Amino acid sequence: MSDKKMPAAEASNVDTPSYELAFHVLPTVAEGEVVAVFSTLKDIITKHGGELTLEEAPERFDLAYEIIRYLEGRNRRFTSAYFGWVRFTVAPSEIDEISQEVTAVNELLRHILIKLTKNEEAHPFYFHEALQETVSETIEVNEETAVVEPAADAKDTKAAEESQKDGEEAGEKV
Predict the structure, then answer these.
(1) C-alpha 153: how far from chain center
(2) Contact 128, 60 (CB under 8 A)
(3) Residue 21 belongs to what domain range?
C-alpha cells in the first residue's frame, strides 16, 4: 500500500457513483412546457444532493413502437414522445427517493434510472445527434428520368441460361 494521502476533493468522489435518468415526456405536453418538466426532474435530483454532470434536452421523435398507457380513465396510445436524459452523481442512499419522486411526475410516459459503469460514464451517447446523422434524404423519381438496372442475380441467371442453351445446341450437333 502507498503512504500517499488522497486529496479531499478526490476522496469525496470515490464513493459517489454516477447515474443516468432517461425519460419520455408525453407528446400531449405542449412543446413550451417540456422545458419545465425537464427542470422539475433536475430539481428533484439536486434536492436530494445530486450533482448534474451531463444532459440532453428532450426533443420530440417518433417511437419505434406504440406505447399504451392508462391515462385519464382510459388506455391511450402514443407513437411519439419527447426523449431526454440527465446524468448525475449522488449518494446511493438517495436513489430510492429520487426514483419515487420521478415516478410521481404525471407528464412522463416512461423513465429509467440506471447506475453507469465507468465505460458508460466516459462515453455518453447523444441520441438526438445520432438520430440526425441517420436521417436519409428522400428524392422523387418519375418514369422518364428513372434508370432501371437489372439486379446482379438476374444478369447471372440470364448468362447461365444462355450458357446452358449453347451447351445443349453443341450436344445436338455432335
Answers:
(1) 37
(2) no
(3) 10-133
Pairwise CA distance, residues 102 & 113, whole Å = 9
Residue 3 domain-assigned? no
Domain count, the chain: 1
Whether 171 shows a pLDDT value over 90: the answer reads: no
Helices (H), the chain: 8-14, 31-47, 95-103, 118-122, 127-134, 152-173
Alpha-carbon distance values, 3 to 6, 8, 9, 132 (Å): 10, 15, 18, 51
- Identify which has the larger pLDDT, 147 or 119: 119
CATH number where 129 lies: 3.30.70.60
The pTM for the full model equals 0.65
Q: How does pLDDT run across 69-126, given as a tens digit for each residue? A: 998 899 999 999 999 999 999 999 999 999 999 999 999 999 999 999 888 887 777 6
Residue-level pLDDT at 174: 45
Backbone angles phi, psi at 27, to 5 degrees: -70, -10
Question: What is the average pLDDT across 12-18?
Answer: 70
Give the sheet arrangement for strand 18-25, strand by strand.
51-71, 74-89, 18-25, 108-115
CA distances to 54, 117, 119, 126 from 123, in Å = 11, 10, 6, 10
Q: What are phi and psi of 126, to 5 degrees?
A: -95, 100
